[in-house]
Design goal:
This protein has 228 residues and is α/β, with parallel strands linked by helices. The chain is 36% helix and 32% strand.
């Protein structure tokens, strides 16, 4: 079983509407759509925005639906200079940029319990997603994605995430899903398409380009699901 999570309706509706044999179950106020996508057993959920919502959806998928893989998809703010709106970032690792126990001597982003800053994504899943994204003609980069409960829309924060974590994109959920998957020993991946550039224009670009960017992510998932 493959679990696919997006934070918002635009990020998952394109998958839900083409699934077959669909059964809908609601757990912890989240609707889980079980069925087949391109003949593959999947469960798809719209978690809601933010790290806690995404973590609840991921933990439910793992414990209730016994997912072998969890993939988080959706849009993000681009941090790497080579990224434009509509481009793709496949996570090689994820980091919770708002974890901060530096007063205790820990490095920024350090996760107590996991005892690390960066959570590595499954290399095989990332390889498949990257190859399929490139085959669909989308400009694609692979690197660290930074997550935090904050919509990034200023140059100072943008530059801090780039310089501190070498992050390629910023969003609000992926690393929390990685955190849950690491705790449960489940393979995961994060696929993001760029809706804005996480700067002072983001509040304008995000609502303008979010749907288009999300459609690119859905296109990649459809192309890759049978290979996973």
């Amino acid at each position: 079983m493959i679990g696919i999570i997006g934070a918002m309706a635009d990020e998952v509706n394109g998958l839900k509407f083409v699934m077959s044999n669909v059964l809908i179950e609601t757990v912890s106020s989240v609707d889980f759509f079980l069925g087949k996508l391109c003949g593959i057993n999947v469960v798809v959920a719209e978690s809601g925005v933010g790290k806690v919502n995404a973590a609840v959806a991921a933990q439910t998928m793992i414990l209730k639906y016994n997912t072998d893989y969890v993939i988080f998809i959706g849009v993000a703010g681009g941090l790497h200079d080579a990224l434009k709106i509509g481009d793709v970032v496949i996570a090689s690792s994820v980091v919770e940029h708002d974890m901060d126990t530096t007063p205790l001597g820990d490095p920024p982003g350090y996760i107590t319990g996991l005892d690390r800053v960066y959570i590595d994504c499954d290399a095989r899943l990332a390889d498949i997603l990257e190859r399929c994204a490139r085959e669909t003609g989308l400009n694609t980069l692979r690197g660290t994605i930074a997550s935090g409960d904050q919509f990034i829309a200023d140059d100072d924060t943008r530059n801090r995430l780039k310089n501190m974590f070498n992050a390629y994109a910023a969003e609000m959920e992926g690393a929390s899903v990685g955190h849950v998957c690491a705790m449960n020993g489940v393979k995961f991946a994060v696929l993001r398409t760029i809706s804005d550039t996480a700067d002072s224009s983001s509040h304008i670009d995000f609502p303008t380009f979010c749907k288009m960017a999300a459609e690119n992510a859905i296109k990649v998932i459809k192309a890759s699901i049978t290979q996973i």
